[in-house]
Design goal:
This protein is of the alpha+beta class. It has 2 domains: about 60 residues, 434 Repressor (Amino-terminal Domain), CATH 1.10.260; about 140 residues, Umud Fragment, subunit A (Ribbon). Helix content is about 25%, strand content about 25%. A hairpin with an 8-residue loop joins strand 7 and strand 8.
Length: about 220
C-alpha cells in the first residue's frame, strides 16, 4: 500500500474531507494534502500531526511498516474506563476505576522511579495513586497463587500478620511475593516471609533483612 493509499484509508476511516484535514493541521494547505493523496508528493513534514489526527501509528503511515492502529495512551485507557464506570445515582465514585500497569518482580523494586505510564500492559482496578498489578512468577505460592496470576499491590500500606505482601530481600534485585507474619523473640519483634509451597524456605528478618514494599489487595487468577 502506497503513502497515498494509506492517507486515503486513514482519512476515510475518520470520515474527514481533505478540506477538514487541512483545517486541522497548521501549515498544511488543502492543495498540498491533495498532492499527497494523489501521489504527486511523496512525503511531508506533517506526518506525525496527520497520524495523530487520524489516530494511526505514525510509522505505519509514513512507511507502511507495523500495524495501522496505534496503542492507546495510558490517559486514553483511564478515560475510557472511567467513562464505562460512569456515575451511579448521580454520584461520582470516590475510588474510580483506572488503568494500572502490570509489572514484573524486577520493576517492582524501583517502581516509583519508573512512573506508571511507560508500561506495555495495563489492567483496570479501583485503586489509590501508585498502586500496580504484579504478575506472579514461579510456584512458591501454589496452590493459592499460580504462575501468571495477577495480584494488585497497594503501596504504602502497613502489613499485618496474615497479609500477602511484596518485599525486597537484602542483596536481591527482584521483589518476592510471600505471606507476612510478625513474631516475637522474647519482647523483641521480628518478621517472616512465608511461602505457601512447603518446598520453599521461610525468610526470617533475623537472618536476612527485608523490606515490605506493598500489600496484596486483589487477586486475579489466570485461567489455563
Amino acid at each position: 500500500m502506497s503513502l497515498s493509499d494509506r492517507l486515503k484509508s486513514a482519512r476515510k476511516a475518520k470520515k474527514f474531507s481533505q478540506a477538514e484535514v487541512a483545517e486541522r493541521i497548521d501549515g498544511l494547505s488543502q492543495s498540498a494534502y491533495s498532492q499527497l493523496e494523489s501521489g504527486k508528493s511523496k512525503t511531508t513534514t506533517k506526518m506525525i500531526e496527520l497520524a495523530r489526527l487520524f489516530g494511526v501509528n505514525a510509522d505505519w503511515l509514513a512507511t507502511g511498516q507495523g500495524e495501522m492502529s496505534t496503542k492507546p495512551s495510558i490517559d486514553d485507557l483511564r478515560q475510557k474506563m472511567n467513562e464505562i464506570q460512569g456515575r451511579e445515582n448521580g454520584v461520582e465514585h470516590a475510588n474510580p476505576v483506572k488503568m494500572l500497569p502490570i509489572i514484573n518482580e524486577v520493576q517492582a523494586g524501583h517502581f516509583t522511579e519508573i512512573g506508571d505510564d511507560v508500561f506495555d500492559e495495563y489492567e483496570p482496578a479501583h485503586h489509590k495513586d501508585g498502586d500496580y498489578w504484579l504478575r506472579v512468577k514461579g510456584d512458591s505460592m501454589t496452590p493459592d497463587f499460580n504462575q501468571g496470576d495477577l495480584i494488585l499491590i497497594g503501596r504504602n500500606r502497613v502489613a499485618v500478620t496474615g497479609n500477602y505482601v511484596v518485599a525486597l530481600v537484602a542483596d536481591d534485585p527482584k521483589a518476592t511475593f510471600k505471606k507476612y507474619r510478625e513474631c516475637f523473640d522474647g519482647d523483641k519483634p521480628y518478621h517472616q516471609l512465608i511461602a505457601l509451597n512447603e518446598f520453599y524456605p521461610t525468610i526470617d528478618s533475623r537472618a536476612k533483612a527485608f523490606e515490605v514494599i506493598g500489600v496484596v489487595l486483589e487477586h486475579k487468577r489466570v485461567l489455563v
